[in-house]
Amino acid sequence: MANSNSSRSGSVPSTARYGFSDASRAGDQLRRVGWWSDTGPGESEPIVAALSRTPDPDLALLSLDRIREAVGSGWVELSRSLGGDIGLRGRLFGVLGDSTAFADHLVANPGDWHRLRSDTVQPSTLQERTAVLLASVGADGDGVPGTGGGPVAKLHGPEAVSALRSTYRGLLLDVAGNDMASVAEPSLPTLPYESVAANLSDVAVAALRAALSVAVAELQRSGVDEVPRLAVIAMGKCGGRELNYVSDVDVVFVAHSESEIPAATRLASLMMRVAGPAFFEVDAALRPEGKAGALVRTLDGHLSYYRRWARTWEFQALLKARPVAGDEELGDRYLEAVQPLVWTAAEREGFVVDVRSMRRRVEEHVPSELVERELKLGRGGLRDVEFAVQLLQMVHGRSDGSLRSKSTLDALLALGDGGYVARADAADLVDSYRFLRTVEHRLQLRQLRRTHLFPPFDDADALTVLARAVGLRSSGRNTAAQALVGEFRRHGNRVRRLHEKLFYRPLLEAVAKVPTAALRLTTSAAVERLAALGYTSPEGALRHIGALTSGMSRRASIQGTLLPMLLDLLANTPDPDGGLLAYRKVSEALAETPWYLRLLRDEGVVAERLAQLLGTSKLVPELLVRAPEVLRLLSDTSALAERDPMEAAVSLRSAVARYSEPQRAVSAARSLRRHELLRIACGDLLGLMEPTTVFGALSNIWVAVLESALDVAVRDVASRSDGEIPARIAVIGMGRLGGNELGYGSDADVMFVCEPVGEADERSAVRFATSVVEQVRRLLGAPSQDPPLEVDIDLRPEGRQGALVRTLDSYLTYYRRWGEAWEAQALLRARAVAGDRDLGERFCHAIDPVRYPEGGLDEGKVREIRRIKARVDSERLPRGADPATHTKLGRGGLADVEWTLQLLQLQHAHAFPELRTTSTVTGLRAAAAVGVMETGDADELIEAWTLAMRVRNAVMLVRGKPDDQLPKHTWELSAVAAALGYPAGVDTGEVVDDYLRVTRHARAVVERVFYGS
């Protein structure tokens, strides 16, 4: 007895090394089964090692001890087989280490361990499994089970149910053994989730057929001689061949004729009563009208319901419909009849919204305390994957048969291959779905109960067993649990992120609105549809479509997905044909840009906004092919339209400062200006930016370019003259640049002022500054595909005949001695914009007496200004221009408003400092505030000036080149209207009338205030 205790106590540390939590008990059990001695496992070491690798070694060993007692003398054979058959060892131990339910089955059916031997040929096909189940109830014959002439069960009642239950559990044991084998014996092949789910689905279908055979026998015993023709349609996971170990099996029943419905209903009810206690619950709640509806209908009855009354979720359920039992011909006809309804369901009004609402309702039913642990219905759970995949299938599968798979994973892979989903996203979802389904299988194996609930996060024991069951190993008990929780959360977060990305992408709603027939048009039908959409050249549009979608490349596939939606979006723009051509050019230019098509597909708002831009503007596509990165901003309104203009200017200057070579520096400046110009244009056209914000942003980017070019030129000229910089230079903005009111096509009116530095003389300073200015003009004036960067210095003293640069004293001398009224007027908008800030501010302060003359203007100078304005009106208006709609020089246009304000400033700014501003709008408001203009008059002028500026900008955006004339062509006027924010389809005459009304009112103010009429 003492020796026994000593041996027992000596075994404790040894068995503990094999992962048994109760080492003493494990030692006793291992001795009883003959795998442990005083010296350890000995020749049984491979067996004990396999036990140690199971999810729960203690459970596996306890179950083996129970089986030992159940098999009695057969234990010797079983033990010997375990020692020599690695396959048996892996399958049996893998199951026993995770499932108390299968341990109970093996104790009740001791001989079933033979099923798991490597030399046992397991039934592996649907037909073989069906035959085994039919044989268990004495049914034989060659016909289809459950039909007239098919095999009929000899057993009935509880006896049949018991036989079926035991045989079914044996078939499940086959699947579970193969599924778990590699957990205990890593050298055995790992069965992928898809194979396990497919095998479980086949076992379930075989069970349905056997239950139907028993039900036929019961029906015949009740006196019904003729077996009704009944088809059993699997739905849900069974239909998709992705069933769990424990699950209800969703079905729909179809009868051949109305006269057979009573008998068919009885047969279906009998089948369900057999299947429930024998296998699983058969759930027919997905039938028309649900549980309130008839259990069995004819095919016509089903179709009548689906065509008239079915809701969106019912078509979603039909995605996985598959005939599995009963009358095969009737089942095939049912599937053939309902498929067209499934693949046109996306056309239903509010289809996408309905599917999304259904998912939210499902999620809301999960108790809040369980939502984080709910594998199936919770956030980031299996339903998130399935709903996203099914929605994508139903929208895109209308035109692409490759997506019409009943399997979630097959559909996901097809969506990735077809370009409907990014390959990386599809791969991530496949990986996460497999992980979650594997966890679900392992949880259900434990007691063969239907559960989708992850263990509590603080239950280390349950988590460790589950972690080992799914293949997560670690050296510490808690570490495995923590690793599992970390993986569970990682996959859940990834699923939720991708679910929201795919399930809520606007592209789905846009594509769903395209009629199914339009996705599969013949050439002639396509021409008719394009014409109906508003394309003036349908044949040309068809050529563009063909060029974009030709070939078998992934790029062509994604284009094929996008184009039906894009064609509809472009049809709602002023120029669908031009927009489609622009889209083709942009797509061809960005063909090698890997993220371009992914962005359009995954970010629906980008596709919608791009279509609006391309169908409205010629400038945007020209800039886009050279600044494609702006496309990314279309999905982010704040980044697109709310960027601080000063931030953009600083970024541009910093980037240019890195280059010492002038051409490269200016090239960098052009690139950043192009990016910023396109960003502003997009925000403007999409109605996301206020007009004053647009004017200011365009002015700031021009100033940044000037600043950068000046800095580069100074360094370059200095490098060619011993590195000395003998002068400070300031750039004075004039005209609309000075007023911070530039448009897309505006030149930069400037003057340059300099002063000597240190001991340098004035002549050297001017000579150096002149070289710098010439370099600036040369660099910025170089030919470019972008809107030009013209530096206009004609407002300098003596105009084109005058010096390019003067010192501050030289400017003041000129203005005091020779300055004319119009030059003082021009100086009203002078503002230091670049270069030496102190010098620029001193210049502006020094010219204040010139532009804000003490005492205002005498009557002679007022008449002179009015005379000059009248001459400008008559001489500078282009030949053939319409003065009523010329935005710059026309009646009530920009010049009218600006000259009116400037006259008031010359007259009154000396007395009212509020008028000393370079901004037109600010100046007009100040004029009203100080009482030199009526508030109503100021409002009229501000409205007219803002409208003229906006129209001028809109014309530039629409035509791609500057023009001061309101267009006359209908499509151009429609595009201008769209750019101005008018609703789609507005009468272009209304746009012209609005412009004429506003400018007419402004002209009346000008006549009264400026001309004194």
UniProtKB/TrEMBL annotation:
Belongs to the GlnE family. The gene is glnE. This is Bifunctional glutamine synthetase adenylyltransferase/adenylyl-removing enzyme. CDD domains: NT_GlnE_GlnD_like. One of its GO terms (biological process) is regulation of glutamine family amino acid metabolic process. SUPFAM superfamilies: Nucleotidyltransferase, Nucleotidyltransferase substrate binding subunit/domain. Coiled coil: none annotated. It is an enzyme of class 2 (transferase). Its EC number is 2.7.7.89, 2.7.7.42. Residues 1-507 are annotated as: Adenylyl removase. It comes from Saccharopolyspora elongata. Pfam families: GlnD_UR_UTase, GlnE. GO terms for molecular function: [glutamate-ammonia-ligase] adenylyltransferase activity; [glutamine synthetase]-adenylyl-L-tyrosine phosphorylase activity; ATP binding; magnesium ion binding. Its cofactor is Mg(2+). Involved in the regulation of glutamine synthetase GlnA, a key enzyme in the process to assimilate ammonia. When cellular nitrogen levels are high, the C-terminal adenylyl transferase (AT) inactivates GlnA by covalent transfer of an adenylyl group from ATP to specific tyrosine residue of GlnA, thus reducing its activity. Conversely, when nitrogen levels are low, the N-terminal adenylyl removase (AR) activates GlnA by removing the adenylyl group by phosphorolysis, increasing its activity. Residues 358-503, 884-1008 form the PII-uridylyltransferase/Glutamine-synthetase adenylyltransferase domain. InterPro entries: GlnE, GlnE_rpt_dom, NT_sf, PII_UdlTrfase/GS_AdlTrfase. Residues 1-20 are annotated as: Disordered.
